[in-house]
Each structure stands twice: as structure tokens, then as C-alpha cells.
Amino acid sequence: xxxxxxxxxxxxxxxxxxxxxxxxxxxxxxxxxxxxxxxxxxxxxxxxxxxxxxxxxxxxxxxxxxxxxxxxxxxxxxxxxxxxxxxxxxxxxxxxxxxxxxxxxxxxxxxxxxxxxxxxxxxxxxxxxxxxxxxxxxxxxxxxxxxxxxxxxxxxxxxxxxxxxxxxxxxxxxxxxxxxxxxxxxxxxxxxxxxxxxxxx
Length: 201
Ligand code: ATP
Ligand code: MG
Fold this sequence. Notes:
Largest sheet: 6 strands, parallel
Strand order of the largest sheet: 3-2-4-5-1-6
CATH architecture of the largest domain: 3-Layer(aba) Sandwich
Radius of gyration: 21 Å
Helix content: 40-55%
CATH superfamily of the largest domain: P-loop containing nucleotide triphosphate hydrolases
CATH topology of the largest domain: Rossmann fold
Oligomer: single chain
Strand content: 5-15%
Bound molecules: adenosine-5'-triphosphate, magnesium ion
Number of helices: 7
Distance between the termini: 54 Å
Number of strands: 6
Shape: globular
Low-confidence stretches: none
Number of domains: 2
């Protein structure tokens, strides 16, 4: 094949691709509040959610954050975003599981936390709500999945919700609009590197 034939072929292929992309962009013409789930064992779930918080704030939107598991009390995102006007930040999961080893207390803590989330799920002024590590209280049975799904469904039509955490329950995946599974191919921790500020916390 001559060079000019190759060039023509490439141009034709790109033109066909552009027509397909243009068509699918035209088809996506609705706006709605989205439910996103970021799950899987790979790194990047919470940090991706906080990336969306930055995006939303850049658009002048109001953001709520609820953290259900606290492994670390001094993450960079909390220090940074708590200072931003337009952000409401709740830490709801103090002393869960292996810390307390007390099912009744964990259930009570999670339910009290969900009551706080509910106040944001009925608040029309909150444009984006991050429910960080919500999958764990569901997985351990401290929160009923049916309650969580019903409250998510009843939220304002334009409110976006991002849920993070490993082992997302099937019902949550089904209810969500956008679901991403982050896959763990490699993590520096296993090579003996402790959590690094700015990267891991
Ligand atoms: P990040 O907050 O960095 O986006 P994450 O939300 O995907 O991580 P979590 O399961 O919430 O992951 O774990 C939080 C902490 O554990 C972070 O410090 C993160 O870097 C680290 N981590 C995440 N995935 C792994 C992994 N596969 N192996 C070891 N450490 C991990
Ligand atoms: Mg996380």
C-alpha cells in the first residue's frame, strides 16, 4: 500500500469514528443527579471521589461529605476541603469493627451516621454528596441495604451521590448509574512502603 493510500485509509477510519462519537454525544441529551459507585481492591476510590469534590467546587456547587470508616484522622483531603466554603464534612464512623468488636455499638454508630446522611439526602441545596467507605457498614450488616437504597432513590432529582468502598453490594451496583471497579495490579505497601502523605492520605 502506498503512503497516500495509507493516509486516505486513516482519514476514512477517523471520519467513521468521529461520526459514531458525534452520534453518541448527541444521544446523551439529558441531565440528572447521578449515583456513582467506586469499588474494587485497587487504590483510587476515595481520591477519585475527592477529585469530583474539587470539580464540583470549581463550578460553585455545594458539597457534602460523610466518611463511614476512619482509619486515619488526618488525611490531606479533610484538612483541605474542610476549609473550603461550600463543603460540609461529617466523620460518622468512629471506632468501628476491629477497634470496638461490639456489634450492637457498631450498628448504633452506623445508624446514627445514616441519620446524618439522611439530612443531606433531603437537602436540595447539596449538589454533590460523597459517602466515603459506605460499603462497609452495609457489608457488615450495620445498615440495611434496602433503607440505604430507598433513601438514595428519594433524594433530590439533581443531586449527585458518589459511594466508595470495597465489595459494593449487588443492589447498590444495580441502582447506580456509573460504576467503576478499581483493580489492584500492584501496590507499594506490599513492597514495604508505608502510607505516603499526598498519595495515600
Ligand atoms: P485512596 O484513598 O488512596 O483513593 P482507596 O479509597 O481506593 O484509596 P481504601 O480501601 O479506602 O482505598 O484504602 C485507603 C488506604 O489504603 C489508602 O491509604 C490507600 O492508598 C491504601 N490502599 C488502597 N488500596 C490498597 C491496596 N490494594 N493495597 C494496600 N493499600 C491500599
Ligand atoms: Mg477509600
